[in-house]
Specification:
Layout (H helix, E strand, L loop, with lengths): L12 H21 L47 E3 L9 E2 L5 E4 H11 L36 E3 L6 E3 H10 L19 E2 L1 H29 L1
Antiparallel strand pairs: 1-3, 2-3, 4-5, 4-6
GO cellular component, one term: nucleus
GO biological process, one term: ubiquitin-dependent protein catabolic process
Organism: Fundulus heteroclitus (Killifish)
Length: 224
């Protein structure tokens, strides 16, 4: 509430002082009432709307159990969300409009889970997990026998290892002996980065990542 500006008004000094005191009283009352709340604001203590947490009516009740706080869908495009009525659904979020919603991929999984199969239908056998293709020997570290990570070439015999594997192996051996050709006095500082194998490692990791999330993106695109 704002009163008229008496500073420039043609009134007596007493009226100006009286107006200033009245303005101060109004400002104090507004500060006690708390800030102006957004239309969809919900109290973080009780979950209800219409009041700030400082003015929550259940503040004095020590036995009151606050409802689980629902995350907001900030940063998630609206086209990726599906509105729901039940706030107890797993993964539910609160949109900027104050409505409940879940990610589209969760919505499809929830809908599939709710479908009841007729009792006369045979039970589906669980699908076998697809076996990953074996890693070529050329991409395996000769020490850990796993996919080369930060591949380096040792100068004595030209073989490739994981940088961490070969450095540890050389430092732990008494005479810095190569584990493949047994050449001694091989300094870890002479190791050379194998840029070609490092690129292959990155590409393989990238394809695994794409394959992992492929189904998720296909599902989302169907629902958009």
């Amino acid at each position: 509430m704002q009163l008229a500006n008496f500073a420039e008004a043609d009134v007596s000094e007493e009226d100006k002082i009286r107006a200033m005191m009245s303005q101060s009283s109004c400002d104090m009352m507004n500060s006690k009432l708390g800030p102006v709340l957004p239309e969809n604001y919900a109290c973080y203590r009780c979950g209800n709307t219409g009041h700030h947490i400082r003015n929550c009516p259940v503040s004095v009740d020590k036995n009151f159990e606050a409802p689980p706080r629902i995350k907001k869908s900030t940063g998630i495009p609206r086209s990726f969300m599906v509105e729901v009525d039940d706030p107890n659904i797993k993964g539910v979020m609160l949109t900027s409009c104050g409505r409940y919603a879940i990610p589209a991929i969760d919505a499809e999984a929830y809908a599939v889970g709710k479908k009841e199969k007729p009792p006369f239908l045979p039970q589906e056998k669980p699908k076998c997990e697809e076996k990953e293709e074996p890693i070529p020997d050329e991409l395996l570290c000769l020490i850990c026998r796993d996919l080369l990570s930060d591949a380096v070439v040792i100068p004595c015999c030209g073989n490739s290892y994981c940088d961490d594997c070969i450095r540890t192996n050389l430092l732990e051996s008494e005479n810095h002996v190569c584990p493949t050709c047994s050449q001694s006095d091989v300094s870890p500082d002479t190791l050379i980065a194998n840029k070609f194998l490092r690129q292959l490692f990155f590409v393989r990791w990238l394809w695994k990542l794409i394959d992992k999330f492929c189904f998720s993106w296909i599902t989302i695109s169907r629902l958009i």
